[in-house]
Amino acid sequence: MDIKNFSYAVFKGLYDSVRGMVAVLSLDKEINERVLNRRSPTRSNSVRQKQFDPGEHTTKKHLKKEEMLMMIITFCSRESKVMKRIVQCSILNGGIFLLSILIFRYGLLPGLNKFLGLIFGQESFMGKLVWSWIEPTLSLIFRAVWEIPLFLLSKAVNALWCQDIADLAYRHSRGRPIYSQRVSVMIADTIFSMVIQFFFLIQGIILSYIPIYLVSTTLSFVHICLLYSLYSFEYKWFNMGWEIHRRLAFIEANWPYFLGFGIPMAFFTQLPDSWVISACVFSILFPFFIISGNEANPIMDSR
């Protein structure tokens, strides 16, 4: 393995993952400008026909108003929703789901604990007994009534929004997606991909239990980075018509690049001590990494 090429590939993957997130700021504008520019010749021809039609008595002022109205209607009907979908993901996962968990765990429960301390005394046996019953009961009710249902709902909604983001970004950069497979083959490919991702995740979790801390942490982190890279690029490769075996072979052959690409998301999702909070962080960041994966050009033969 060439250390220089390996280091460059890891750094390039890390750079592409961050650089692609910046591209989302201008992506909507570029898509909408392209739509309007594609529509403008048709509008201009229709306007010229009306201007030189002797049977028409519409003034130039009215023609300009009509042209502007057509532009607004076209723009509103075809406007890109990339930023809108990303904002929606952030509000659902961060503003509603994550914020409610943080308020409950670090606001409501500590506040209630202090309130019971004021009533029974900070070190009283009765206060500790009441709190030992109230805290798990409230936590169980919160998970059953709010946390788990909202988690499942957010996963379903995020899947739709992320697919919408990926399709819009792909059409902007590469044109119409390629769907060369039959529907049955596409369904089987998707299911097999989910199974592979599940076992890959389990493998990373198992590696984290190796007795040697540095080895277990490193191997688990590498697995998570590669898995998140697969998540980010899979939308693009699926739209390109790549089957699952080709996607996996490409990541295996060029893993240093994808290791670097997955570092930012793996780092931020490993910070929380709760898997639910980690899932919220992942859902907030993932749309940006879909854009990054769509805009990136992986380095090949870097091992």
TrEMBL record:
The chain crosses the membrane at residues 86-108, 140-162, 183-206, 212-231, 251-269, 275-293. Its main location: membrane. Residues 50-59 have a biased composition (Basic and acidic residues). Pfam families: EI24. Keywords: Membrane, Transmembrane, Transmembrane helix. It is found in: Membrane. PANTHER family: ETOPOSIDE-INDUCED PROTEIN 2.4 HOMOLOG (PTHR21389:SF0), P53 INDUCED PROTEIN (PTHR21389). This is Etoposide-induced protein 2.4. It comes from Molorchus minor.
